[in-house]
Amino acid sequence: MKILALSTNYRYHQDVLQSLYDKGIVATHVVSHAPDSEKTTCSFYAKHNTTLINGQNFYQIKTMQKMVPADAPALSKEVLDYFVEVERDFYTISDRYAYFSKSFRTRKRLFRYAIRYWLDFFAKNEIDGLFAICSPHNFPDYLAFHTAKYLGIKTLMTTDVMINDHILLLDDYRQVFKVPEDFMAKKSNEEIISSINPVLYNKAFSESREIAFTKLLNDKTLGLKNVNIKPTKQPGLKKLIRYKKRLVKYLTLTMFKPRFKATFAMNGEFSDFSRRLFRLQSGIRLKRLKNAYEKLAVYPDYDNKFVYFAMHLNPERTSQPEAEVFEDHLLAIEILARSVPNDWVVYVKENPSQYGKKLNIVNGKHYRDASDYTDYTRLPNVKLMRQDVKTADLIKNATIVSTLKGTVGWETIGSGKGAVIFSNSWYSACRAAYRVDDVDSCKKAIASVLEKKSDEIFTDKLKFLAYMQDKIVIGSMGGHHNIEIASEPYENLVESLADNLKKRFAA
């Protein structure tokens, strides 16, 4: 069996591909966004003569013209009709790859070149399946994934869950699960627990190291004191060499040809000096954005009934493409504002990483500005909330907790409350997670949350684990941080994912 793998540059995913190779599933092609780096040339790819498709080439008209063969199939109305929603999301995704905006026509041409490329690729290479390490959220991977779906090629992807050492294995990030209402209806909690894999059960009810790390990272971004984030382990000599390289990079304004930088991908290449100027400009913009937010933000009044709505970082895969139309937070906030009684307040809390210079200093330029906050607060009963209010306090005191699909929803369910969500999340199969898409469904969801008791929520969580346990498997998302905080042996993380991928590809 031959598969296409998307962006499997981490050592972990290359080890998974090696295990699949040993099991008879061969990644003959890989989309790489760092094709010249050491981690791709000295790896599984070189060992097995894997064809690397340079993802960098998809961002420029001039390189796409060379990539699409003269005999590539022409697009038809039928094809373009299928890709209407994909094209819509492509435009929001591609915003992160153009620091200076590109015209609609240019991006449309890139979109259509890419579709032609992938149709031709799959026709000529007899690919049987596609594996993505997560929801494809850069557009070479995104369009490869959806072209495979169009052609009926088997697709598999992983997504992170806030259960230690586990991941969710999906066919599609849009795949929807829901625990049936009658599932284990007459079973006691003890009987449900006995049906759940003990490892999954124990880790689902242990403190999530990923959630704990995220909270520490947010606190550090906000400048809170006494925050200690464990650094990535590095051998002493390697660490010293890396430090010296960074020192040279930041103390000298070289004019050497820069490495590929995703933020500027559609704008071409810039010198290191120019990119530092852009980063400086972005830093000033983010500071102004934060100041605009803080001028409007207030502390919540716990004596009143209120909705706590947690925003997502933009851009990131949980908002583009996973949230689909709700990547525009205004849509979700307005639905909430129109769904609650007049005497309630909707408190909106920005994601701290939106101002984070490490995560979002440049590529978030087109996703949030001060006018967004003005739009939110113009809605009835909507207020922005101070960033230093603790999430645990908000979950405890909120009448309703809502998010697009964020981790706060899972934390809320764990606290004995239902959560209102606006898109498909890893925990949305749980009957205590109420997915909504308009005012009517939102009002019904709020009524259901208010009616449900905490012991019913606990049972819903148990049934969710029992129902989804064949899909939530031992594994990792593969980043250095993910591997470092894992408690399972590394070999288990590799072999479990490889075994489950083989089983599902063979199904």
What does this protein look like?
The protein is of the alpha/beta class and 507 residues long. It has two domains: 2-176 and 472-506, 3-Layer(aba) Sandwich (Rossmann fold); 297-467, Glycogen Phosphorylase B (Rossmann fold, 3-Layer(aba) Sandwich), CATH 3.40.50. The chain is built from 22 helices and 13 strands. The protein has helices at 11-22, 38-41, 44-47, 61-67, 77-82, 84-94, 104-125, 139-151, 189-195, 198-204, 209-221, 236-251, 272-296, 329-339, 357-360, 370-378, 391-397, 407-414, 439-451, 454-468, 480-484, 490-506, and strands spanning 2-6, 26-32, 51-54, 129-132, 154-160, 166-170, 306-310, 345-349, 382-384, 400-403, 419-421, 433-435, 472-474. Strands 3-2-1-4-5-6-13 form a seven-stranded mixed beta sheet, sandwiched between helices. It has a six-stranded parallel beta sheet with strand order 9-8-7-10-11-12, with helices on both faces. Helix 4 (61-67) packs parallel to helix 7 and helix 9 (189-195) runs parallel beside helix 20. The longest helix is centred in the middle third of the chain and has 25 residues, at 272-296. It is globular and about 65 Å long. The two termini are 12 Å apart.
